Amino acid sequence: MNLKLSIIFLFLISSMFYIGCGNSNDSEKNSLNPDKFKESLVKANKKLVKTEDEEIEDYIARYQWKMTKTETGLRYFIYKNGKGNKSEKGKIAKINYQSSLITGTPCYSSTESGPKSFVIGKGEVENGIEEGILFLRVGDKAKFIIPSHLAFGLVGDDKKIPKRATLIYDVELIEIQ
């Protein structure tokens, strides 16, 4: 048994020596090129965004929702029209909400924590909520599908929302001040 281990060890050492003593031109060719690295990251990111977009479109088709897509990728539809004031940047919005992952797993809701208040445009909530709330008036109820880049991005929130999570929000704008 020790003879087998010795042979394997010698093989590994000789392989490392052979690789380490290779042609310097080969190692220069294989060294990390910052432009190629950046290009591969951009390519990978585009693939992730495309995959997430396809998942969102499948979700919308499954529920047969008639959603509007914004330039940023937010999807929304207002399913109950209110008659109150229109929201606008700088105003304080107060909402009831329920959020879940695109898989259906519940995340947060105003039932648990009470209504959420925030100044529109100050970055106090997810970018997708900031953007979506501007389409609403007091009394409106809407569904938002928020892609990960408009929600908690690459890292999640370290609690209920994992990295790169698409979020589904059911929102009611209850007050604008």
Question: Quick recap of the structure?
Answer:
With 177 residues, the protein is of the alpha+beta class. It has helices spanning 2-20, 24-30, 34-63, 110-113, 127-133, and strands at 68-69, 75-80, 92-101, 106-109, 116-119, 141-146, 167-176. It has a domain at 66-176: Chitinase A, domain 3 (Roll), CATH 3.10.50.40.
Report on the architecture of this protein.
This protein has about 180 residues and is an alpha+beta fold. The protein has a domain at about 65-175: Chitinase A, domain 3, CATH 3.10.50. Helices cover about 40% and strands about 25% of the residues. Strands 1, 2, 3, 4, 5, 6 and 7 form a seven-stranded antiparallel sheet that branches.
How would you summarize the topology of this molecule?
Blueprint (H helix, E strand, L loop, with lengths): L1 H19 L3 H7 L3 H30 L4 E2 L5 E6 L11 E10 L4 E4 H4 L2 E4 L7 H7 L7 E6 L20 E10 L1
Antiparallel strand pairs: 1-2, 2-6, 3-4, 3-5, 3-7, 6-7
Describe this protein with a few key phrases.
disordered N terminus, seven-stranded antiparallel sheet, 7 strands, alpha+beta, 177 residues, Chitinase A, domain 3, 5 helices, single chain
